[in-house]
């Protein structure tokens, strides 16, 4: 199969700054701004260590994907690589599972939009806000990719500047007492309330599931490869820069938050960022941060829908999805693939109506197990890709560090995260759904093969 086929019509309009911000937009969303409240309850101040461990594994996964994306920059990314280096069935499963993952991620992002709006307008039902946002973001995704990239760039800039501003303000509180009547807060909150490991090492281990969910989205760099203006240059830059920036934002932001506010007083629902500034008596800052976390959720949903449309388009070009999903509008956007993905995301609106309290947790559990399947696929395919390159003697332009040990360590880590999920009641149900989903994909592949023959 010609690996360049997926690029014949998709526009190459994304610059390096667009690609970096798309990846940041996908990864800095509800996981940090909303889900981190639950993670803090699990690990306490030691959550910063959890983010560091998770970040190292993410770096290896990103470099594994980058090694292949620089060699073959296609829209559809690792589904295409799985198809090429592992086989038709893995390629089929990888593509559809990635699509499923970002439908669920989109649902998770939409499900919390209403929570943020309720901070200002408590009488508006969460499902109404979710529906309104779904319509607006879907419209945005039907315009040309450069406009999308520009919008996502500014969406992400808001988040990044807000986090930097919050870190600077937090450090000012810690050192100079600004916002605390001139009394320096110090950093004793990091160990005064039960120690740095208030729930022991087990708390850190259990928190890894939510931490890995938070990092979901960084692999969007690979999805954008087919629309990058200069992939040989922009993909390596984006991958290397995005990883350390995310680590800085997660560890820096959470470190500051837990230094200025006791971890055991953070509520499990709502954004801890907003909670803290409300508690310390800075309502204007709390209002501003609520706007930021609302923007973050919209940005992450925007990135999710973008990747869904491109993955479904790639599947159609491969012959692994109906051909009409490969249809582009006059702006070069995969319109039918986007609208189909949106139709599935409407389920989030329905579940937000039926069970608004636990809706985020449901989607987070499903998103975590599906993203782990995606990441494991990337690592396995990279191992096969490298063997193929060694056999043919072809050069590798962007090598994964510590190969192959880094790939094996990352695969073991992902297996451990799945085992941890089995011990968390609210997340365990996703382990029952995953085999059913994979079996459904296997049957779908067999039906497709039978129809072709």
TrEMBL record:
Domain Amino acid permease/ SLC12A: 18-449
Compartments it resides in: Cell membrane
Regions crossing the membrane: 21-40, 46-65, 85-104, 124-141, 153-176, 196-221, 242-264, 276-301, 333-354, 360-381, 402-423, 429-445
GO biological process: amino acid transport; transmembrane transport
Listed GO CC annotations: plasma membrane
Membrane topology per record: Multi-pass membrane protein
Keywords: Amino-acid transport, Cell membrane, Membrane, Transmembrane, Transmembrane helix, Transport
PANTHER family reported in the protein's UniProt record: AROMATIC AMINO ACID TRANSPORT PROTEIN AROP, GABA PERMEASE
Family the entry assigns: Belongs to the amino acid-polyamine-organocation (APC) superfamily. Amino acid transporter (AAT) (TC 2.A.3.1) family.
Protein name (record): Amino acid permease-associated region
Organism this protein belongs to: Pelosinus fermentans B4
Organism taxonomic ancestry: Bacteria, Bacillati, Bacillota, Negativicutes, Selenomonadales
